[in-house]
Amino acid sequence: MPLKLPETASTSPAFSATSPKYDTYAHIRGYSELLTAPLSEADQQLQSMPDASPAKWHLAHTTWFFETMILAEHLPEYRRFNEHFNYLYNSYYNGIGRQYPRHRRGCISRPSAAEVLEYRRYVDEHMRRLFDRGLTAEQAEMIELGLHHEQQHQELILTDIKHALFQNPMYPAYMPATKQTIMLADEAFRHGDSMADTGQVQNSTDKQNAASNGSSGDGLQFVNIDSGLYEIGYADEDFSFDNERPRHRVYVHAFQLANRLITNGEYLEFMRSGGYQNPAYWLSDGWTWLQASDQKHPMYWVERDGEWFEFTMYGLQTLRPDGVLVHVNLYEAHAFASWYGARLPTEAEWEVAAQSEISSRAFERSLQANRLHPPNWSECNRSDARIHQLMDSVWQWTAGAYSPYPGFQPFKGNAGEYNGKFMANQFVLRGASCVTPASHRRVTYRNFFYAHQRWQFTGLRLAR
Q1: What is the pLDDT along the chain (464 residues), one digit of tens a residue?
Q2: Which run of H or of E encompasses 431?
Q3: Which residue among 22, 93, 147, 159 has its CA within the 20 to 30 Å range from the CA of 137?
Q4: Is the same domain home to 286 and 163?
């Protein structure tokens, strides 16, 4: 059956930093619970690795954020739902207090999933009271941050449960493949079914387009971008994270950016040519990671009797050659680029190129579509854009180390720990993925992860 949000969600307005509405708050909070609806109590308890968290923990932590950052500070009569939760569900805010060890979050069997939902109802009711009294500018800004924080965790709910389900050799689906429209996109409800993705997935028994020889369809093309002085970063009055600001000038040399993302078929060619065995393609740290982990293919690829399959949110599917390559880390992305005779773009190059496509209908569509797996290249409408798949498929690795922009100012107070303290030893990814909430996507968005991590929906686009 299609998943459905409450009827009020279809008319909730886009939120702004100056006047967030309770309907918007309730819509975004409800979407988190929609994502966990297909999960059993046991599913919600799973923690498959230290980097991931149980779905139940995500629901509680995002609630803790509103309780701690907003209600405890701005609603005088507020009393915490449970004092122990300040320890259990604090993620990394040292200024607030100690945190339960991240790698042991799967041990928090209680509160139960039902009690976590009760916690959410309690906090939401008190948030409604705060809304009803009228918000100050400071309160509105913190609520805005809390909503975007919730949207980040919505993506993490999906990526974390995907990793957990993959550990089961039965390869169970988060949601079965269906020909029906999957009501996943939060924005789709606001604009009608015409914007909702059909969510159609190739059945594993349908092999007419399967990867038997590794071909991938259309050849890769490169788009010329002129050298010049450009501006990057966020400058508008609406919300952005602190790491997206301030807008500033950068000089960019002339470069070329690939018109699309790398496909499974192209990556298969890299693998079959010995790409995982040739140290010439790999960064030193990447080669060390490769030898220690004994990896030979992207995460979630499974080979059976010489045929490749891919684990998706719909279960195990036949690998399509024109499918978007997903779940590779920076090391793998760099190695492929070296093998291809190209490189990864800098984050400035990526943003400059993306800005040139903002007016295209293809770009607008990429901001709207949500689904549980990236659309295949053959499904893309390529009529009015030079560069495709910017915001609707995978986060795209760049060569840029995660560091502050000139003049960077962190959020005030405890929220100052949100981004700035992680600006070391990580790399920036640009764009958005198929499971990024539609209203959470921006050209200036700077996602970041460690070079070895690949459980997010990450892929690559080449530059030269």
Answers
A1: 333 333 322 223 334 434 569 999 999 999 999 999 999 999 999 999 999 999 999 999 999 999 999 999 999 999 999 999 999 999 988 888 899 999 999 999 999 999 999 999 999 999 999 999 999 999 999 999 999 999 999 999 999 999 999 999 999 999 987 633 444 544 443 333 333 333 333 333 333 333 333 445 578 999 999 999 999 999 888 899 999 999 999 999 999 999 999 999 999 999 999 999 999 999 999 999 999 999 999 999 999 999 999 999 999 999 999 999 999 999 999 999 999 999 999 999 999 999 988 877 767 777 766 789 999 887 776 666 799 999 999 999 999 999 999 999 998 888 888 888 999 999 999 999 999 999 999 999 999 999 999 999 999 999 99
A2: strand 427-431
A3: 93
A4: no
| Cβ–Cβ under 8 Å, residues 178 and 53 | no
Cα–Cα distance between 416 and 203 in angstroms, integer?
46
Residue 399: Cβ within 10 Å count: 18
Pairing of strands 395-401, 458-459: parallel
Same domain for 155 and 259, yes or no, is no
Nearest to 82 by CA among 66, 64, 100: 64
Number of structural domains found in the chain: 2
pTM: 0.89
Q: Which residues contact 65 (CB under 8 A, 6 or more apart)?
A: 146, 149, 150
Q: Report the CATH number that the domain containing residue 322 is assigned in CATH.
A: 3.90.1580.10
Residue 242 shares a structural domain with residue 388: yes
Q: 190 in a domain, yes or no? A: no
Q: Is residue 152 domain-shared with residue 298, that is, in the same domain?
A: no
User: 83: how many CB neighbours lie within 10 A of its CB?
Assistant: 8
- SS3 breakdown of the chain: % helix, strand, coil, rounded to 5? 40, 10, 50
b/e for 419-439, b at 16 or more Cβ within 10 A? beeeeeebbbbbbbbbbbbbb
Cα torsion for 384, 387, 389, 391, to the nearest 10°? Answer: -100
Q: Both 79 and 152 in a single domain? A: yes
Domain range for 423 is 222-459
In a domain, 268, yes or no: yes
- DSSP readout, 160-212? HHHHHHHTSTT---SS---SS-----TTHHHH-GGGS-------TT--TTS-S
Contact 186, 28 (CB under 8 A): yes
In a domain, 188, yes or no: no
- Whether 164 and 226 map to the same domain: the answer is no
Q: Is the peptide bond before 246 cis (omega within 30 degrees of 0)?
A: yes
